[in-house]
User: Fold this.
Amino acid sequence: MKAALRYRVAVLDPHQHLWAVTLEIDRPAARQRLSLPVWIPGSYLVREFSQHLQSLGAQCGHHAVALQQLDKNSWEVRLLQDAGAAPLRLHYEVHAFDASVRTAFLDQTRGFFNPTSLCLRVHGREQEVHALELVDNAHTAGWEAATGLSPNRIDARGYGLYLAADCDELADCPVEMGRFWSGSFEVRGVPHRLVVGGAGAGADCERLLRDAQRICETQIAFWHGPDSQPPFKRYLFLLHASQDGYGGLEHRNSTALICQRADLPRRALKGEAAIAAQPKAGDGYTTLLGLISHEYFHTWNVKRLRPHEFRRYDYERENYTELLWFFEGFTSYYDDLLLLRAGLIDESTYLELLSKTVNQVLQTPGRQVQSVAQASFDAWVKYYRSDANTPNATVSYYSKGALVALCLDLTLRAEGHASLDDVMRVLMRRCEAGPMREADLLAVLKQLGRRSYADEIAAWVHGTDELPLAELLQRHGLQWSQESASLAQRLGLRVSENGGLTLKHVLRDGAAEAAGLAPGDEWLGVELDPTPASGETMAWRVRKLDEVALYAAGHSALTALVARDGRLLRCRLRWPAPVQQVKIQREVMPSTAADERRWLQE
Ligand SMILES: [Zn+2]
Assistant:
């Protein structure tokens, strides 16, 4: 049966970065409304994709039809009574030159798009089958195409016709085109494919494929035990390697990922020894594996189990939820933990990654201003619109949410009745892999933990007090020690050192704030008080923060010379006491705690 809604997407001009789209609608409404989404699920910011749509026209049979634009992203077509049986045909172009996973891109090397950027939604017809044809033309010679949509009639390179059961499925299936490395594996009979575009010849994509397979096997076993099937028929990783990009966006049976080219594993050069087996905490490859693990975990946690407010996405406006601390935070907790359980990183690397997350939260003054539930609700105007004041006013629902998961897991395990793993699986069943409320989590915690966890959720999720991390980790045989924090942290600053020292953030109640330094200041130099020995005032030019320490050693105060808005300011800076950061390690003596239920192993 022919789909009544048919999209046709072709490369119009790669140098102009233009996609050409036609949309045919059988049996259109007399006043047919069409719109482009203003946001893409998974990325909580109104992005106004219609900004890039141009040259929209409509025809019915051989006649042009009048189109009226209703607002920033919707249009209405009014059809004459005698339009007859001819389909309504819309044609338009979309400019695509944003190399992120959230929108669309096109040049002579590759094409990428989310249907939220290219496919006008046909109002009133959202539940029907949507067909998408990927057109192979002179611009795509030698290119392949890949997407998570169901193929209907495609050629060996992936061009041709795909079908989506409804508009949500179409919106949830990005498309990549270009020349790419491609590999595949099966987990429990479910085919998984990895395509990598933009990699250098030295990239070891086979190793990446093997490691991705271990992540998938570990996660399917996590959710489904030893033998049942995952909730998708096939899965696709679309990875684009770039000079300095980074990001991922989850979808129901695929994910679009961007990594740095240098972070891909390398093949040994001729005559060179084999590359080390396990990546370490600072390695880009560890970050890439963590990203793959994160987005794959979302296949269950946010694409199936999802906030009650996302039971149906509203593509026209912000979709508010307080639950991103659960869906992003718990996913962040499990992304690295499952790398450890898959054997891809070792325990000391895992604990280094965990220490980093703890320090990120403890070095964010905004954790005392905003709860993670508020941070979730405000994601649309705060997390996704970060500015110089962000660390002072907000907390990340990713990092603090991950620590809430850690605290819950360690508390459950210490009390001996369940783990957070059990909670996730029972929650999935209770909510039938669908919409969830906070009350569902509380109910499952009570059922499995055999007591109410309402006080913990109130304090950790809806409050701003510190989490009881040190105490919980110590109960599980881990040592919570302190080490010196960076100079920037000591001064209460975050800086950029590209061609000069520029202040990005001035942290609440820090020494830099007390001195009157402000975000955007260019720190030009330091002036030191005369010492009794020399009696001489010394002044130095600085380009890096480390030089401030070099020149100021032995002084309790200095004058910072900064440029702001064309003026030179002298700011008196009192040198602060050293500050500490956290380091989490395995205790040298094995723990005798009986409540340690193999947290890092199972
Ligand atoms: Zn995420």
